[in-house]
Amino acid sequence: MSWVKRWFNDDYFALYAHRSLAEAKVEAKFIHNALALPKGSNILDIGCGEGRHAFPLAELGLNVTGIDCSKIAINRALNQLETYAPLTLRFIHSDLFDLESVYSYDAALSLFSSFGYGESEAENLRFLQAIRNHLKPEGYFFLDFLNPSYVRNHLIPKETVFVRGEKVEIRREIIGQYVQKTMLFPTRTYKEKVALYSKNILKKFLQQVGFNPLFEWGDFDGSPLHHRAKRQIFLCQKTFC
Questions:
Q1: What number of other Cβ atoms are within 10 A of residue 59's Cβ?
Q2: Which structural domain, as residue segments, surrounds residue 131?
Q3: What total of structural domains would you count in the chain?
Q4: What is the spatial distance between Cα 53 and Cα 62, in angstroms, rounded to a whole number?
Q5: Do β-strands 135-146 and 178-184 pair in parallel, antiparallel, or remain unpaired?
Q6: SS3 241
Q7: Do 165 and 117 fall into the same domain?
Q8: 154 in the Ramachandran plot: left (φ > 0), alpha (ψ -120 to 50) or beta?
Q9: Same structural domain for residues 23 and 122?
Q10: Other Cβ atoms closer than 10 A to 177
Q11: Are 70 and 172 within one domain?
Q12: Is residue 53 located within the same domain as residue 23?
């Protein structure tokens, strides 16, 4: 089993419980303003998790489809749907490559570094190509990714936290072009591994699969993208090539 399917479970959501809905609402507002799409536009939230961004985006008038390969994540999202009725929201337990609808969405989102999980450059390019295939002509792609230089300069090799009363040791290391995080719970161990792609490489990948990068930012506050920025955020548009 890949680390992606093994790790995105209840332990994951407990470890990252500090990521608040209030924070997601601020980020959703930034995404909404950046896309500048009319009310009722169809949005695909890839790796939506429990819907932290999908719900506030729907509150802003967008029709949101969230997909995630984690059934636990999708169930957590579905359990909140009644609270948000009658907003236009749906959640699908699916891998991006198995999603049937193509050329259907006005925009697609990949948030909180839900890209870069592939074991090779070719796999990650295939992921970007699949996103493009699900967009309408001239559709938009909003990519939020980690900044390698920030990661390298702020890496905490080892720390201990408590999750639901359990002592968890977290180890971080850079291995080749990947940053890897290992979570050691008392009776189970998980890993995360994300590629470290620079701004220039990301832009090259986006253009290679048929996206035109329009704007870039270093965080959700609209700050510029530079080597000290926390994030790498791009708004791209599907090209005709």
A1: 16
A2: 3-147+198-238
A3: 2
A4: 11
A5: unpaired
A6: coil
A7: no
A8: alpha
A9: yes
A10: 13
A11: no
A12: yes
Residue 61 is encoded by which pair of tokens?
A: 């008038």
**CB 63, CB 78: distance < 8 Å:** no
Sheet holding 105-110, edge to edge: 89-93, 63-68, 42-46, 105-110, 135-146, 231-238, 211-217
What's the pLDDT score for residue 126? 95
Name residue 192's beta-bridge partners: 181
What's the pTM value of the predicted model, to 2 decimals?
Answer: 0.95
Q: Are residues 81 and 106 in the same domain?
A: yes
* Residue carrying the six token digits 């490559």: 97
Q: What is the DSSP string of 202-228?
A: HHHHHHHHTEEEEEEESSTT-PPP-TT
CA angle 126, 189, 167 (to 5 degrees): 130
pLDDT digits (tens, 9 = 90+) for 109-154: 999 988 999 889 999 999 999 999 999 999 999 999 999 999 999 9
Helical H runs in the chain? 3-7, 10-15, 21-35, 54-59, 71-78, 81-84, 121-133, 148-154, 199-209
Q: What is the pLDDT of residues 44-79, one digit of tens each?
A: 999 999 999 999 999 999 999 999 999 999 999 999
Instruction: Examine the domain organization and report whether 109 and 127 are in the same domain.
Output: yes
Report the distance separating Cα 212 and Cα 18, nearest Å. Answer: 34
Q: Quick one: 13 and 56 in the same domain?
A: yes
Could you tell me how many residues make up the chain? Answer: 241
What residues have CB less than 8 Å from 218, skipping those under 6 apart? 147, 224, 225, 226, 228, 229, 230, 231, 232, 233
